[in-house]
Amino acid sequence: MDNRIWSAEEEAIIATNTEATECKRCAVELGYWKDDYIGYFAKHVDRKAPEINRGYYARVKGVEMFIHQFLERCDTKCQIINLGCGFDTLYWRLKDTTQAVGNFIELDFPAVTAKKAHIIKRNKALLEKICNEDGEVVIREGDLHSDGYHLVGCDLRCLTDVKRKLSVAAAGAPTLVLAECVLVYLRSDAADALLRHLAAAFPRCVLLTYEQCSLDDKFGEVMARNLRGRGVAAPGRSHALGPADGAARLQTLGWGRARAWDMVAVWRALPDEDRARVERLEMLDERELLTQLNSHYALAVATTCDLFADMDLNA
Q: For domain 8-308, which architecture applies?
């Protein structure tokens, strides 16, 4: 168990995991998507606004779209590194399909990973899917390890810590790095150093990010002010950029090819029947609000390898 004393800002960042997990649980309960495991990490929660539920649906389905493209190109002989994993259930959802990957590594603050490990260990449905051939998991220095799954406490702001914890990764394997609402909580120099390292360390790599964007208008100012009001430092200049400029920034950090789309474009790229089904789940009065929210979040995909160069929103 992590016993260090966290700063007020770190506590605020850690709390965003609880909020995101509860939002996902609400959307799952309403039928937006299927997740048999989210209930282990968040009990019954209050109903969220329809635009929040629909926004999370677009986020989850957009990320899944690119995960499937990645796996189509390298099969399951690959690895996923989930930065700032929180209580994400992707590992278990993939295990229930034919797309379980060979190595899955999750990193977050030790306070988060310790709690996640505790939940995993006390729930058979979670534990049995990560056990090694002997039916056991190994707890080492507060981290949880098994054959093909590693849950490790790490301060992503400290590159030395990141490098040490990623020793469980195979540098030459096809690698997908996920970073959902993570980089916004890092200083610009720390985020840049992390992204440069990942590009250099994994030559067959895809980076998939979901982050705030275009925060240089009035709506973006409100979003930044809300973050500050919760004790989180205002996003850096990179989050004031639009999707295209954000993709260009990734290229300057060693990612040879990068593309990005705001969530308005991602929503439109989803299959017509899926969007129609979701729109029937709840009445949406504030369509303009949803459009504003979606235009201030972006999904970006970048790669260091020609194998993944054709990954696209409409692929």
A: 3-Layer(aba) Sandwich (3.40)
Binding residue numbers: 59, 84, 155-156, 180
- What pLDDT is recorded for position 135? 64
pTM of the model: 0.94
Binding-site residue positions for S-adenosyl-L-methionine? 59, 84, 155-156, 180
In the chain, % of residues over pLDDT 90 = 73
| Sheet hosting strand 297-303, strand order edge to edge | 138-140, 143-146, 149-153, 103-108, 79-83, 175-180, 205-212, 297-303, 257-262
Cβ neighbors of 136 (< 8 A, separation 6 or more) are 146
118-131: per-residue pLDDT in tens? 999 999 999 999 98
